[in-house]
Amino acid sequence: MLRSLKTGARSLKTGARGLKTGARGQGPGAGRSGVPCRRFRSWRLASGVWPLLFLATCVNAAIFPDQIGDFTKNAPKALSVADQALYNEYGLLASEQAEYSRSQQHNGQMDDSHVVVSIAEHFTATAWHMRDSTGALAVFQARRPSGAVQDSPAQLAARTSDGVILAFGNYVFQFTGSVPKPADLDQLYNQVPELEQSALPALPGFLPREGMIPNSERYLLGPVSLQRFEPRIAPSVAAFHLSAEGQLAKYQSPKGPLTLVVFEYPTPSMARDKYQEFQSIPGAVVKRTGPLVGIIVQPPDADAAERVLGGLRYAAKLTLNEKIPKDESKGFAKLILNVFAASGVLIALSILLGVAFGGFRAILKKIGLVRQDEDEMTVLRIGK
């Protein structure tokens, strides 16, 4: 014990000598030759880099969990975006692709012998994490194949030839192979980071449905998407800086397909002003209804274009506050508690009034304002 204490004291003295040597003009962290210590620089560099690495890790958090139902996640793959400018305009935050697999054993019988057959199943899961649900709608429409089958226009889910593509909140998922069960998908939705479920824009609901080519819709959020899907309209005319958004769809006509673009502006007066500018586009057929402006540029069939624009009608949608269902049992229990509370208050008031009345009578009696016979109780002696 004593030897260890002495050894510790010697090491402390040696450390103090090193500090004195550094203080003689070489500066802290300098060696004998006066050159700053590399270890000290490395430590300072690492201390500044680690927070950045931590923030980058938090931003690029994994989207898919390690398990979806009975399927186990394999190593994730790097996902490259074909049109980065378009996805940036739609508000892409992160993307991920992963392989999931499982093996199931089935009992069989062949040539009077028991056989166990192992069947491997797998699917590829791809996710795009968007800033909001509007961006997810735009990506869903852009990635949906032309041959996809959508059960309902109100649901952002479509069956493809090799799987399914769907949008949920601010996420777009695509599964190819063995599609997970709906219960497993609900579990996935509860685990994804930064889920946002704001209301979808009402603009797609104003499009005429008659004659629309299936899966031809494209949502426009800025100049990039407008250039990709309808370059005949200038971004300056569309004026996205006025918080305008657009919905594009293609329609069949006897002389060929035509493209309808409907722009929505914050106010009807803005739409009225833009209506004049859209009319200046060569060969454009334009219609305004409320804050909407519909335009078809150089239609192959003018009559068909008029029929399509005739189906464009704006209807204001009001959101009413619905009655929230209440638990009747909780209301009854609250009523009972209120009755007991009111009873307690009445009892306490009765006691206080009784004590106050008795004390007041006693004071009057001592003063002499109340006679003795007034305090006596009247008794009827009926038994005697």
Relevant terms:
single chain; 384 residues; alpha+beta; Protein Transport Mog1p, Chain A; 3 domains; 7-stranded antiparallel beta sheet; 5-stranded antiparallel beta sheet; 12 strands; elongated; disordered N terminus
Could you write a compact summary of the structure shown?
The chain is α+β, with helices and mostly antiparallel strands and about 375 residues long. The protein has helices at about 1-25, 40-60, 85-90, 135-145, 180-190, 225-230, 235-240, 270-280, 300-310, 330-365, 370-375, and strands at about 65-70, 70-75, 90-110, 115-130, 155-160, 165-170, 170-175, 220, 245-250, 260-265, 285-290, 290-295.
Structural write-up:
The chain is of the alpha+beta class and 384 residues long. The protein has three domains: 67-189, no CATH class; 203-310, 3-Layer(aba) Sandwich (Protein Transport Mog1p, Chain A); 342-384, no CATH class. Helices cover 38% and strands 23% of the residues. The protein has helices spanning 2-23, 38-59, 84-90, 133-143, 182-189, 223-229, 235-238, 268-279, 302-310, 328-367, 372-375, and strands spanning 67-68, 71-73, 92-110, 113-130, 157-159, 163-168, 171-177, 218-220, 245-251, 258-264, 284-289, 292-297. It has a seven-stranded antiparallel sheet with strand order 1-2-3-4-7-6-5. A five-stranded antiparallel sheet has the order 8-9-10-12-11, with helices on both faces. Strand 6 and strand 7 (171-177) form a beta hairpin. The longest helix has 40 residues, at 328-367. The radius of gyration is 39 Å and the shape is elongated.
